[in-house]
Specification:
By secondary structure, the chain is α/β, with parallel strands linked by helices. 52% of the residues lie in helices and 10% in strands. A hairpin with a 4-residue loop joins strand 1 (70-77) and strand 2.
């Protein structure tokens, strides 16, 4: 009996040592995988200090908590308004990550999920969808459950190695938990030839890589297998492509067409916008409140919008405002100027994509303002002017006119005009950074952020703050 006890203890010791060696090997493999991830998708932390470990549910250290750049791309619904965003981590590195090992792909995706949570993206999901681009191999991992189910759509590549394995059990498990799942296709891939799950919620189709007949065939094949599937047109480059896609059963649209500058054949300012421009110029000329109120009263729709805005619950007034003059006194000149600038985007006779462009402009303007506030390099009044510069930087898209022609009608401070037309002056760096974030210019973001004095993790957070603010303010302001 004593002999059996001794042998058992010796066996336990051997198993413990083997377990330790196994854990050490796993740890070294994980470190090697992370080093590989660093080469294709480098991560940074606040102040560029040493790595910050992220702890998983199993209390296993993972990797840095802050990626350098989170890319966001607006997705429009059929109503031409922003319905959600497609989120990716380090866009330029994604193809290299997808071609890497299983561990690298999963580390990359876990960093994206953790960063979105750290940025507070769940606040965006009450009214918007978050399409989170991950590899197929990550769908079966527990970390995907860290995103809230409401509003989260996990998107994987239909042609990726391992997608067939992930397509069945992993997709079914996530959908049972309340998540939605989509697949993306590109190039000449046809839905009929791909091993897509029958239970997919979305199919994202790269319309820039195929002709319309091939796209139509792909949609018909997918709909035959999954009648409730919804289609997302991605990589829509121009308004012409958008109009062509609108003739197909797409529910959502993504691409640079939203802010594309096409068919600029001279400034066209309709009566509604002309009245707003007149008010903006009167404000810049220090007109009296009575004169401003008289101009507003000349337009019944403008008077109604002003009173609705100032009496909105978010303003927090105890008494109802009933006249434009009272509204002007409550708002003040700077707030009135900001409100009128926003209203320029949605006061046209033909709305088109005006609402989507307005939200893009709001994000751009607010991000520039927040960055300037963080650096404390500009005064409050200068930050107000910087906000206006951000809004006006997309006004040419709405008016389908060259920006210099648009600005001839509006009296703007010289620093604002310099930033918009010459891309120089004290406002130019902040506006350039906001545009770089919008265009996911990785190198530009890094260089501009460093020049301004901000770390990339802070720019990421401010970007999401701007998105949340734009979502809240856009509807109320108009």
């Amino acid at each position: 009996m004593l002999g059996r006890l001794i042998r058992a203890l010796r066996g336990k010791g051997r198993r413990r040592k083997e377990g330790e060696r196994s854990g050490l090997v796993a740890s070294r493999m994980q470190e090697a995988a992370f080093r590989k991830l660093e080469t294709v998708a480098p991560l940074v932390t606040e102040g560029h200090h040493g790595p910050v470990q992220v702890v998983t549910r199993s209390s296993t250290p993972l990797a840095h908590s802050d990626p350098s750049i989170v890319r966001r791309e607006a997705i429009l619904g059929r109503d031409r308004r922003v319905a959600g965003y497609l989120f990716r981590l380090l866009y330029q590195a994604n193809p290299r990550v997808q071609a890497s090992s299983l561990n690298v792909q999963r580390l990359h995706d876990q960093v994206l999920v953790r960063k979105l949570n750290a940025m507070g993206v769940r606040r965006l999901l009450e009214h918007r969808l978050a399409f989170v681009d991950v590899s197929a191999n990550s769908l079966e991992m527990p970390f995907v459950e860290e995103m809230p189910a409401q509003g989260t759509v996990y998107v994987f590549g239909a042609g990726e190695p391992g997608h067939a394995r992930a397509a069945d059990a992993a997709v079914a498990r996530l959908r049972a938990m309340g998540y939605r799942v989509g697949a993306r296709t590109a190039g000449a891939q046809g839905a009929g030839r791909l091993a897509l799950p029958d239970a997919l919620d979305f199919l994202l189709i790269d319309v820039g890589a195929s002709e319309l007949p091939a796209i139509r065939d792909r949609m018909n094949a997918a709909a035959a297998r999954s009648p409730k599937i919804r289609f997302v047109a991605t990589n829509v480059q121009t308004l012409e492509e958008y109009r062509a896609c609108a003739s197909l059963p797409f529910s959502f649209y993504q691409g640079p067409f939203i802010t594309s500058r096409e068919q600029f054949d001279g400034p066209v300012v309709d009566a509604g916008r002309a009245r707003i421009v007149e008010l903006l110029n009167a404000l810049r000329s220090e007109a009296e409140v009575g004169e401003l109120a008289a101009l507003i009263k000349q337009n019944l729709a403008l008077s109604y919008k002003l009173l609705r805005y100032v009496n909105a619950p978010g303003v927090g007034l105890r008494h109802t405002i009933v006249t434009p003059q009272q509204a002007l006194l409550v708002l003040g000149r700077q707030q009135l100027y900001r409100w009128l600038t926003i209203l320029l985007f949605t006061s046209g006779q033909t709305p088109g994509l005006d609402w989507a462009v307005m939200e893009n402009a709001l994000i751009r303007a607010r991000l520039a303002e927040l960055v300037a506030e963080q650096t404390r390099a500009l005064t409050t009044e200068e930050r107000e002017e910087l906000f206006v510069a951000g809004m006006f930087s997309l006004l040419d898209v709405v008016l389908s006119a060259p920006l210099d022609a648009v600005l001839e009608k509006v009296r703007l401070p010289t620093p604002v005009s310099d930033a918009l037309l010459e891309r120089r002056g004290k406002y130019a760096p902040y506006l350039a950074l906001a545009i770089a974030c919008e265009e996911s210019d990785d190198a530009g973001i890094a260089g501009l952020a460093e020049a301004i004095g901000l770390d990339l993790w802070r720019v990421n957070s401010l970007h999401l703050e701007a998105m949340l603010w734009a979502q809240q303010i856009g509807t109320r302001a108009c």
